[in-house]
Amino acid sequence: MSAVTALVPQARAISLEEAAEFIWLEADLLDHNDYPAWLALWSDAGHYVIPIEPGETDFENTLNVAYDDAQMRIMRTRRLSGGFTISAAPAARTVRTVSRFRVTRRGEGVLELRAAMVLVEQRLQVQRLYAAEVEYRLLADGDGLKLDQKVVRLVNSSDALHALGYLL
Question: What keywords does the record list, in alphabetical order (predicted)?
Answer without folding.
Answer: Aromatic hydrocarbons catabolism, Dioxygenase, Oxidoreductase
